[in-house]
Q: What sequence folds into this?
């Protein structure tokens, strides 16, 4: 088994890795925006809003990402909205992650004692200032570990978007398999590539967790 | 300047069907100290929390410096202020909680400096200078860089007092400031409050420390069942209570 062969296979896989990282970062960002936004909206007193958010969370947590991706990709096309694979992958993973992170942020916000907010209001902060300077910095530190774990899981789960032909690692891997029949080698290489991406991410999360122990 | 600093006017507060306050009125002159005592559940903390609108009274009014607090006059009647307007008024009242509620992600100095920065718009340098002065007042200068989790309860409460002082408030509210403390830490906090009282600060103090109330306050209110049962100068009320309930309460407290 030649070193050259690995290099030949590795090129396309590396190309896919760039897309994998892009999809991970952009859909993670979308999921954080959705999750934090909805968790904050759940602090409001509008019961109808709670309902709508709960339905969204339950539906997206309770159905497979693969099904969600197919519905977004093919369903939208069927209705006349043609989205290409990359944005469809972002929307699908972002909406799915948004549901997961809504619960993560809701739990994080809920873990903060009501006295924290009272003390902020008592010194004359507006509710917005109290959120920005007192509540969110604490929520952030509480939610960082689950957020990091979610990011690592997401990185690996992006493999699923190969099903709608988004050109990431697994998409290239399968194409290479059909053209070279080096099945085992290619999937081992693909797995190794995921590991090379997730391992540093895990170490990064670990470092963040250590930093927060300054006050917890 | 003839009007009192604080007027509490016919305060009622219910939580659902539970009536916690049933018509409390009192006034506080500038530089005076009122202690509020009474059994648990008598409404004394709720009364205190209504003064700065941490709780919105069901009815009744608060006046600070003669100005309606937490409400504004609209077409001949009164309506609750917006949160933003309320925040501006609250900045004039310092509050110290039973549970301290320091912000754990900020060190002692930042806990004290953040309100001057974000509420009053001071520069960082001004705010830290003020914070250091306030920490010195509560004898906590040596712990300015520490995070709350590294401080004892008594130290945390003293930083919380410094945080309230940094508002340069017209009035200080103390909500059972020593009730959550280990007995050996109560003294250091009472000492600080005593020093503030001697500076001539205006304060309302809800406490279980009867002897302390007698030493610091110039007026004592005894509450029960959501109302004022008896009030008077501390020597009078504590030495010669008129009501059976006051007598029973004081006997019980002073025996321990």
A:
């Amino acid at each position: 088994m030649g070193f050259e062969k690995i290099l030949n296979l590795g090129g396309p896989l590396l190309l896919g890795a760039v897309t994998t990282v892009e999809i991970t970062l952009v859909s993670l960002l979308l999921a954080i925006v959705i999750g934090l936004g909805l968790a904050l909206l759940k602090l409001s007193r509008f019961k109808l809003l709670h309902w709508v958010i709960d339905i969204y969370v339950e539906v997206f947590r309770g159905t497979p990402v693969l099904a969600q991706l197919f519905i977004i990709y093919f369903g939208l096309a069927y209705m006349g909205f043609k989205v290409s694979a990359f944005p469809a992958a972002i929307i699908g993973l972002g909406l799915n992650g948004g549901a997961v992170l809504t619960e993560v942020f809701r739990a994080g916000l809920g873990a903060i004692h009501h006295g924290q907010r009272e003390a902020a209001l008592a010194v004359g902060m507006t509710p917005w200032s109290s959120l920005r300077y007192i509540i969110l910095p604490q929520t952030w530190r509480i939610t960082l570990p689950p957020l990091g774990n979610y990011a690592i899981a997401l990185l690996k789960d992006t493999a699923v978007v190969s099903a709608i032909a988004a050109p990431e690692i697994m998409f290239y891997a399968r194409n290479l398999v059909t053209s070279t029949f080096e099945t085992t080698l290619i999937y081992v290489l693909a797995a190794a590539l995921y590991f090379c991406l997730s391992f540093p991410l895990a170490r990064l999360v670990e470092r963040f967790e250590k930093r927060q122990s300054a006050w917890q | 300047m003839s009007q009192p600093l604080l007027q509490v006017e016919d305060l009622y507060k219910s939580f659902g069907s539970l009536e916690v306050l049933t018509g409390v009125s009192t006034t506080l002159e500038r530089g005076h100290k009122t202690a509020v005592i009474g059994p648990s559940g008598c409404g004394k903390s709720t009364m205190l929390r209504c003064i700065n609108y941490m709780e919105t009274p069901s009815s009744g009014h608060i006046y600070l410096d003669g100005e309606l607090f937490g409400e504004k006059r609209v077409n001949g009647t009164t309506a609750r202020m917006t949160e933003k307007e309320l925040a501006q008024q609250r900045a004039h009242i310092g509050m110290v909680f039973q549970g301290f509620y320091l912000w754990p992600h900020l060190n002692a100095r930042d806990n004290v400096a953040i309100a001057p920065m974000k509420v009053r718009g001071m520069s960082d340098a001004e705010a830290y200078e003020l914070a250091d002065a306030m920490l010195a007042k509560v004898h906590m200068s040596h712990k300015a860089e520490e995070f709350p989790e590294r401080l004892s309860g008594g130290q945390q409460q003293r930083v919380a007092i410094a945080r309230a002082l940094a508002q340069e408030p017209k009035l200080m509210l103390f909500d059972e400031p020593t009730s959550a403390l280990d007995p050996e830490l109560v003294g250091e906090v009472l000492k600080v409050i005593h020093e503030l009282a001697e500076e001539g600060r205006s304060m309302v103090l809800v406490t279980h420390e009867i002897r302390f109330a007698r030493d610091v306050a110039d007026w004592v209110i005894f509450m029960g069942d959501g109302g004022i049962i008896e009030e008077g100068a501390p020597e009078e009320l504590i030495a010669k209570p008129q009501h059976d309930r006051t007598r029973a309460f004081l006997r019980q407290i002073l025996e321990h």
